[in-house]
Amino acid sequence: MATAVGACATEAQAFGPPTVSPDSVGVLLDTAACVGCRLCEYACKQANGLPTGTLESYNDTSVFAQMRRPSPTALTVVNEWKPQGHAPLYAKVNCMHCNETACV
Fold it and tell me: I need a labelling partner for 80 at 20 to 30 A (CA). Which of 8, 16, 38, 46 fits?
């Protein structure tokens, strides 16, 4: 069994980075890995030529006080939920037009 697993890993590595289809319409994202740093918001604005503000401004957690949605000036936003008795949860919401997300 270990031989088969090793062979699969080597074979997968030989393919290189994934190729994005021109017909793609979405982004697959592991939201369980999101820590709420909001750097994807900064990278998205930078990649799309939108005003980013200072990098330090993304440390401001007061934006989590209200639910945000993507807009023409913020194509990616991160929201926070605080379930009672649990650590905060974060979820990125984006316009779904990006084929090569900054968070990958």
Answer: 46
C-beta of residue 64 within 8 angstroms of C-beta of residue 6: no
How many Cβ atoms from other residues are within 10 Å of residue 83's Cβ?
8
Distances (CA, A) of 87 to 62, 64, 82, 100: 17, 14, 7, 29
Residue with tokens 């090569």: 100
CA distance 70 to 96: 10
d(CA 14, CA 8): 10
Q: Residues 100, 39, 53, CA angle at the centre, nearest 5°?
A: 110
pTM to 2 decimals?
0.66
- pLDDT tens track for 1-42: 444 444 444 454 555 555 667 776 656 677 788 899 999 999
